[in-house]
Amino acid sequence: DPMPTSFLGSALRGTFFFIFGLWWSVRYPLKYLRWKANAESQPSHGIQRVEFFEGAVKAFFALAGILVEQFVPAGPHLQLYSPETHSWTDLTHWHYTTIYFFFLLSGIVDVVSHSPLKLPLGLDRLSLSVALFIEVCFHDYSDAALDYHLHSLLAMAIFAGALSALLEVFLRDHVILEIFRTSSFLLQGSWLWQIGFVLSPPWGGPGWDQTDRSNFTFLTMCFCWHYAGALAVLTANSAASRWYVGERGPRGVPAPCTSWDGQE
Amino acid sequence: DPMPTSFLGSALRGTFFFIFGLWWSVRYPLKYLRWKANAESQPSHGIQRVEFFEGAVKAFFALAGILVEQFVPAGPHLQLYSPETHSWTDLTHWHYTTIYFFFLLSGIVDVVSHSPLKLPLGLDRLSLSVALFIEVCFHDYSDAALDYHLHSLLAMAIFAGALSALLEVFLRDHVILEIFRTSSFLLQGSWLWQIGFVLSPPWGGPGWDQTDRSNFTFLTMCFCWHYAGALAVLTANSAASRWYVGERGPRGVPAPCTSWDGQE
Amino acid sequence: DPMPTSFLGSALRGTFFFIFGLWWSVRYPLKYLRWKANAESQPSHGIQRVEFFEGAVKAFFALAGILVEQFVPAGPHLQLYSPETHSWTDLTHWHYTTIYFFFLLSGIVDVVSHSPLKLPLGLDRLSLSVALFIEVCFHDYSDAALDYHLHSLLAMAIFAGALSALLEVFLRDHVILEIFRTSSFLLQGSWLWQIGFVLSPPWGGPGWDQTDRSNFTFLTMCFCWHYAGALAVLTANSAASRWYVGERGPRGVPAPCTSWDGQE
Amino acid sequence: DPMPTSFLGSALRGTFFFIFGLWWSVRYPLKYLRWKANAESQPSHGIQRVEFFEGAVKAFFALAGILVEQFVPAGPHLQLYSPETHSWTDLTHWHYTTIYFFFLLSGIVDVVSHSPLKLPLGLDRLSLSVALFIEVCFHDYSDAALDYHLHSLLAMAIFAGALSALLEVFLRDHVILEIFRTSSFLLQGSWLWQIGFVLSPPWGGPGWDQTDRSNFTFLTMCFCWHYAGALAVLTANSAASRWYVGERGPRGVPAPCTSWDGQE
């Protein structure tokens, strides 16, 4: 078994957050440019459709995650208590199921918020914030020192995103908050990959030395470099969006959305 | 004695918070729908009467709680120092008396806020917030590990409610904050029942194993499920309110309040 | 020596904070009533004179405190390093000198803010907040358990006041924040008296048992009762102000200030 | 070697922050006076040029710091892993390189914000805040008790500045926040000098006694005195600015900027 499950799990989770970060790093700069081009315009149907679509993708991924956690061969298959051993089944799978469930909920709230059945504005941000707070508060730490250190750094990235989403409940469409949330998602995504490589390398082997102090210092720096990388990705995507808009003129900004609100 | 006092106490406290959560999960969606229907309208006498009534019920429950804590057979009967043992009487009863006293105060402030003698707006939310902060800061934790874990989770629910009420001092009538406060009350209510079942089951017996680590993980997840349940209750009640209003038309929204403000 | 210095010090500090709390519990309700009576009026010269006077009293008390700490017989007499013992002199006196210095600064800022040389609005609240944060961060805790517990509770009262003053930088003249700050000063004042009685009773004797757990629980409750007492004082003074204004009519509100702004 | 590197490093870092504090303690009072003199005026080109220049200086210092850390004789010369010892090279230099990198980034954002390619307002404050948070979170503490204490106090100064810069994202051009940030930079600067003197005196010798408790108390007070000193510097510079403006009349306020916006 050259590729242990925990690497795969960490990498898949990381990919989910990284893709969302990438998507937002294109979407929010475009939204900001469009808003600057015609400051008086209302949020159009186009944006609402994009958020509807985002919510659906989030809900789909979360549901897929729940099903995978439950029905992998080693999973609990929806069983919580094992009668033969008179104890709980392996609760790690249930743990991730619970966390994914709140992301599923957040996706559903996004979808319903932008359906005709309008919910109060800000409920979508609150539900994202709740999902992230639940991810950060109820993460299960191993007792191993390096594992704990890596997950503490992860917790900082998640917490930054949760706080940013919470502030967006009150300061909706604040471009700085949206950019900061985007960077925190990119950081969380790439850091989950890093955790996978450090704790259970895909080429097998025992992972890094849990007792070497210099590994701690190195990984702390590494976390900062991941953030620098996240900011580089964000900058590159923003610049590309700006260049694309500059090429096509301000009228071109809503282009990727035109297909969505053709009926307007 | 098949049903120990501490289960009863926990369940009664839980019921109090759950009933308030249930009531708000009907009231706030209706208020939001009414506000959307005629955005220009002032908060009417009807709403003020409802808040007056809420305060009176809160004060009544708190006063009842104080009397019960003091005058149950094992209670201190308002005695603080026991001259025969030269020590304090059992301070647990006094502890709950103190906590209930601040809820009594919060109820009285609600009542007075909506009396002709108008207090500054926001004092009712501040007094609720103070009562919740006192509940969370001065809760007496047992030294037993599982007990401590359960009460830490409870503290999170109370703290969320306290913070939400504090923000409402500055952002009054913010529907997201009201919904969040409602969900925190529902969570606190159902979690107090859960604590009762885990630590002192009503069918007797010794409670759960305080040393089994998997119980900790299970109860952490359980807390998340309680929150999911609270959100489900909130959603169901909101949907029912919306359906009820949809049946009767926007004019029907203030219906449950009409009897209150007939003199308008 | 029946009345040890530390009781006297604690009581004098407590009196300072309590007097400020009492004064504000009259001033802020009157200000609120005046503001309600004629909502359009600007903050008059009268109020500015009162704040000038408050700052002067604060600075005077702080300066007196500094002089007393330095020049009591056991004090350091402005000497920091003792050449004969080759060590620092007793730093406790210097510690209080430092804390008082920031209250002196806050008083001076109050005075200068309301002089013709106008400072930016909010600097007076910021300087009060800084003084309180320095009081809370740099308090010297004894290692004795009960001492530590009492000072932790004190720190909560100071912190509440500091946070409230900090918020007032951004939300100036917010009546709820002013009332909350007032209640925190009353609490801090009465709790400093309580600390004096517990740790070094004025009638001599060894203070309370530092190891009895029930003392901890009792004093925690006691802290809540002090807060209830502070709220009672605040309510009584507000009611008295309102009654006084009701007797004299809205024109009567500025009465206590009339003598100050006779030249208006 | 009478002047060990760590003193020099601490002193150079301190000088950087102190110079920025000094510069702001002149700039922000002038800006406030100008704003008071003609409240209706927009932020002119002059101010934007100053911020451009500030960003360039910040970026230059940060880049210089990175190069010095990497290419001093004992530095890693961009090498992260030493193949001969099969371990990481000395990571302290890399640590400072990482911290300086985020200040470099903050400088670049300042420069780009005020270039024709306009970034969203507030991104410059966010990037400064991120740099300070990274400085405070990822500082490497020694295990020695006094060292830890000194760096905890430093962390408070940095954290105050980071929080202030974060608030400025939302409350831009708030004079109180600008003054507070200035005072935190002055404090951080002078405290870095103090740390240098205590831990590695430039005249050689072993540094202060790490085990003497009275040193801890003394240095805590010393930190407060540094803050008092920072406030004194700030007050003196503000007073000098005001006097200078008073001499030249309100028209004189933009004087130091006139050379910058001659083309207006």
From TrEMBL, chains A, B, C, D:
Record key words, sorted: Membrane, Transmembrane, Transmembrane helix
Similarity comment: family membership: Belongs to the TMEM45 family.
Cellular component, GO annotation: membrane
Pfam families, A to Z: DUF716
Membrane-spanning residues: 6-26, 94-113, 148-171, 183-204, 216-234
Compartments (UniProt record): Membrane
Keyword Transmembrane helix recorded: yes
PANTHER family, alphabetized: EPIDIDYMAL MEMBRANE PROTEIN E9-RELATED (PTHR16007), TRANSMEMBRANE PROTEIN 45A (PTHR16007:SF21)
InterPro entries in the cross-refs: DUF716, TMEM45
Principal subcellular localization: membrane
Recorded topology in the membrane: Multi-pass membrane protein
Signal peptide: none
Name of the protein this chain belongs to: Transmembrane protein 45B
